[in-house]
Structure of ComEC family protein:
Amino acid sequence: MTLPALAACITLGILPLVWLPALPNLWSIWGIIILGCLLACLRWQMPRYIGFTLLAFAWGILAAMQAIWPAQHLPGAHRQVEIVITETDNMTRHQGQIVRLNGERLFPSTGITLYGQYLPESVCTGQRWAMTVRVRAVHGQLNEGGFDSQRYAFASHQPLNGRIIDAQLQDNRCSWRAEYLQSLTRTLDSRQWQHVILALGMGERSTLASNVKDILRQTGTAHLMAISGLHIALSAMLGWFIVRGVQFFFSGYGINWRLPLLTGLAFAVCYAWLTGLQPPAFRTAISLSVWALLRLSGRLWSPWQVWICCVGMILFTDPLAALSYSLWLSAFAVAALLFWYQWLPVPIKPRSWLGQAAVNLLHLQAGMMLLLLPIQLSIFHGISLSSLVANIVAIPLVTFVTVPIILLGMVLHLTGPAFMQEACWYLADQSLAGLFAFLSWLPPGWLNVDTRWQGVAWLPWLLLIAARFRLWRSVPAVCLACLTALAFPLWHTERAGGWSVHMLDVGQGLAMVVERNGKAILYDTGIGWPGGDSGQQLIAPWLRWHALQPEGIILSHEHLDHRGGLDSLMKVWPRLWVRSPLGWAGHAPCFRGEKWQWQGLTFTAHWPLRGTQTQGNNRSCVVKVDDGRYSMLLTGDVEAQGEMALLSRYWTHLQSTLVQVPHHGSNTSSSLPFVQRVGGQAALASASRYNAWRLPSSKVIKRYSEQGYQWFDTPHQGQITVSFTSRGWEIHSLRDQLLPRWYHQWFGVPSDNG
């Protein structure tokens, strides 16, 4: 079996980790291994391929089981651990590797993220701490089209979160990288673009200012700020040129072509280590090592063979990298470049080298912009219209000017003269000033794109294939059918008459979307926190991705976990009307007796009373949404006192098909008379798993269950969608039904939410 074929088997075998709803048990894995070994020993080619693919599949499953073991077994009690710090913000967030558990060596070590507390002494990467920690399994919010934090955590080998109970410093020595980074940070302290220099040179992107990140996003140049193949390849080229320069003085007998290759590889690996072996840098180092070994083999390998060997080795080394979006973005980008240059070479050959360089760069950027559309829309939900112009200037400047100067400055920072260091940092700072002045001059180019365009994004690939083989002449019907199938979501409309209610997973808050005919009304807007809110980071992207046009907001009451995203949503859609019981400027009233129609649905407000002096939870605007057959009661945070007042006056109007559980499932709400009077068939609660109040209350869950309700909550189900049609209604939970994945499961102690 050839190496590319083996790499393809490894890739195909590990790829199912992305989609598996659950991991097979150990006995099944043994069966897969035995079958794979038997098939791999056969003489026929196809059975051998299948055998190696099965063995790779078992290898990936075992890696996944090893990754979830800490999340399944360590939560639920205080643990005595020894942790080596791998990353810190020098305040209250630290990442580390647990190397000892209860005094015993833990192999392999497992990653943990510690939140919310200062350590008793100054902290830096490389230190070793003895800690007592309360371990929590990773658990993230889950919404359609949203950021998948659990998948990211497993891809990053960080399956645990933790709270520090006690900590003692065992070894205060910082790593060499940490000391170097601290020294470099002090040297660059006076530079305007200090944080960008550190991002380009050391991969420290966490300190980039929000306005800088926004400029990079708007112009499609964020990829230049990551330690990626570009930076590692430049360091490899630096090592290669140094050795070739020295070999210039050797005689022909003293020159070995392998020495520059191996020196460049050593430079690349050392630089990847210096930048903290971040996943993109680690994967680039592996790819360069594979490429170097293939070169040393003495055979001529095609670009596609090198590509599949690199992908296969990355996945064999780290099967959980299959969950990494950045891996597939990088692999897809390289594949797109190979496809682009092989199928559509540079069509123009200018006479001057400068003109040739300009044409090559334009050709490269056009290919990247067109062929990366599918994966870019899938991951980022949008495209930058100014990326072509921005990258034509930014890529040469960063690649051939800024990064080489920064690398030289980093080398000189170790032993070089101070004036040469200052010259390097001055030139790097000025080049970045010019770059960001140009990027800021460009008009904002980011275009949010909804899910309907996912199929259309593949058109550049298909058009290129059709043009190359002249398929539009030989099989026009097939071309037309493909075009129609890809564009189907754009002109297809949902069947009229149906409507949906979505309870978004916003953590310890509430945000619900009532949807019909492509329009939406929101009931509450999630939580807010310093520097962000649910409206900006979750609700607005969710609405755009689903091509929904919001028309209004019903705000239940004034607490921040319900109105946190209001201002952000009003900035995006300033014409939204708002109803609330708060009496704020611009808010329409939401009191008992208010009734209005929207898209054929009837909205009726049942609480509070007009002129009430009640504040807080019991002033929540209770609204019933009704289509004449099915209904849903939206209750906000109303508590038992408000429920009793509702029952004493308006109990005949409260019966509903479904109910949003009041106050996140707190035992101060959902009194038995209220639950009985509503008489619903399902109850939906919004909360975060690890909340300080341990909501939803087990008593409340039991109360609803005993009255015949089906129980759903966002910690267990993620986003919850209720669809109403003329045939009935049904509930779809994202974690269990729409997107079941092994890495989305509820890990750790089943009852642990504190």
The mean pLDDT is 90.
